[in-house]
Every structure is written in C-alpha cells, then in structure tokens.
Amino acid sequence: MSTNITHLPTPTDLPINTFSMKHPLQATVLANTQLTAPARAPWNDTRHILIQTPGLSYVSGQSVGVMPPGIDPRTNRPYAMRLYSIASCGRGDDRKGDTLSLVVARHFWDNPETGEKGIPGVCSHFLCDSKPGDKLLLTGPVGKRFVLPLDFMERDFVFVATGTGVAPFRAMLADLFDQGYERSGRSVTLVLGVPFADSILYDNEFQAMKKQYANFTYVTAISRGDDVNPYPDLFPTRGNKVYAHIALWHNRQHIAPSLLRSNSVVYMCGLKGMETGVQDVIDHVGKESGIEGLSAQLLAEGRLLREVY
C-alpha cells in the first residue's frame, strides 16, 4: 500500500486569488432564498445567496472569501474575512458565467471568556440578512485539491456532506451532468446528513437529478428525526440517532462497488465529527471484500479528500 499522498489529475490553470483583501471584487446580491423551514429560524436558518460576480472565474469545489463590513471591537480592526464554499458550478446557476451562489447558515457562538451565549456570527448574519442590490466585497477564489479531476468521466464518486457542506457537491454534480457524466458508465453518490427533515438543503434539486440520471444515488440522514440507528452494535451513535455514516452503511449495496473500484474518489465536507464514522464505514465495506484498512489506502492514494471543520 502506498504511503505517500498523491494528487488526482486536476487543472493546472486553476484561478487562484484573482481578488485579494487589498483589491477585492465588488459584487452584488441578486437574491436571498431561505432553504430551511421558516419555523426553524433563527437557529437553523440557512440561505441560498445568489451573487453577481463580474470578472470572477472559478471551478466547482473552490471557495471565496467574504469581507463583512465594520470594525471588530475586540481588535479595533476590520472584521476578518470568512471563507465559503461555492455552491454553483463555474458557469453559475444560470450558466451565463457571471454569478456564483453561496449556501450560508445563520451562525451563533458562545464566548467562554465572558460567558455570553448565542452571539450572532458577524458574517453569516450579514449574508443571511442581505437583500437584492446589497454590495459585497469578495476575495479569491481559493482551493486546488478539493476539485473534480480532469479524468472525471473515468471515475466513480462518493460525496458525503453534513449541512452546508453540501455546497461544493451541488456545484460538482452540476458540472458532472452538464458535461454528460450520465453517459460515462460510472456512478456518483451523494449522502447528505441534516438535523431535520424540513432542513434538507436543495432536496428538490437532488430528487429531480435522481429521477433524471440513473447513475446518481441520493441518500439522506436525519439526525433529529424519528429514525433509529439500526446498527448500534456495529456503529454506535449518540442517542442512537441516524447520521451520514449510518446512511452510507445502510445503502452499501449501491455504494460499495464505487468505494471498491481502483480509481474511485471519496469527498467529505462538513462537520469534523462525521470523519471517523465515515472512515469506519469505508473500512467495514473493505473488510467485507477482504480489504483491510481501505480508508487508509484511499488517503494514501489521494482518493479520500476532506474539508471538515
């Protein structure tokens, strides 16, 4: 088994840092759409932000920085830039090439120094409260590794996401099928974990894609619903709830062939807590086929890519 991380064949001319904090892009909000049920707000309020971005080129899997306005009272300096994964393919949702989309969850945080709880996140609230016509300052794009390989037509893909971690996969799926991936003879799977059934991001889009493309498998995991983990002895979970890795294992009949192919690629994006569970499932899938340490093998071969936080 290889011990050196290799890299998938990716474009050598990726756009990187076209715009900087010293010379940001002046962008304009075109639309702000609530993706989660209004009853979940504000604590589970997630938005699709459509932004006009003249002069910005990017590819699926990259991120942009948002510079929120104002001065941070803790530093007496401008607020720090926040990175967000782009949720649209490089041609934008309308395929005209001058927009991008972000998926943004309204964030709250606790200050352990003061004991204050439920403090609104500066950038997430700025974006979630934005209106058409509002101006934004953007930097980027950034990201070289978490992108589709050039030979994507020859590979199977497994995408595992929690919450807003679905952003790059929404973009990648659009790219794949825009370029005829349904004729590739390969398959792609999306496993998406969210807390509530009425908080499944872009569910209508993915359901429509599932109906249209026979080589696309779409699976959801609802962690705060009524479903109970059917594999508590093999994969124990907190409160016996169903998380993304449980759904991955439950659907292994469809997903295992992709995981076991010699040039498949697994992408993870979202909460760091899912990382161990997903890798455990990959290892169990490997064991069922006589392969020990499958997740370590994928990592060593550069075929398990993670963006977790």
- Let me know the average pLDDT: 92
Q: Characterize the overall form.
A: globular
CATH superfamily of the largest domain: Nucleotide-binding domain of ferredoxin-NADP reductase (FNR) module
* Strand residues, percent: 25-35%
Total count of domains = 2
Separation of the first and last Cα atoms: 28 Å
Largest sheet: 6 strands, antiparallel
List unreliable stretches of 5+ residues. none
CATH class division of the largest domain: Alpha Beta
Order of helix and strand elements from N to C terminus: EEEEEEEEEHEEHEHEHHEHHE
CATH topology of the largest domain: Rossmann fold
Describe the model:
With 309 residues, the chain is α/β, with parallel strands linked by helices. It has 2 domains: 25-142, Beta Barrel (Elongation Factor Tu (Ef-tu), domain 3); 152-308, Rossmann fold, CATH 3.40.50.80. 22% of the residues lie in helices and 26% in strands. It is built from 7 helices and 15 strands. It has helices at 122-128, 167-178, 203-212, 244-250, 252-260, 274-288, 294-300; strands at 25-34, 46-52, 63-66, 71-72, 77-78, 82-85, 99-105, 108-109, 119-120, 135-142, 157-162, 188-194, 216-222, 265-270, 304-308. The strands form 4 sheets. Strands 6-3-10-1-2-7 form a 6-stranded antiparallel β-sheet, covered by helices on one side. The protein has a 5-stranded parallel β-sheet with strand order 13-12-11-14-15, sandwiched between helices. It has a two-stranded antiparallel sheet with strand order 4-5. A hairpin with a 4-residue loop joins strand 4 (71-72) and strand 5 (77-78). Helix 4 runs parallel beside helix 6. The longest helix has 15 residues, at 274-288. The two termini are 28 Å apart. The mean pLDDT is 92.
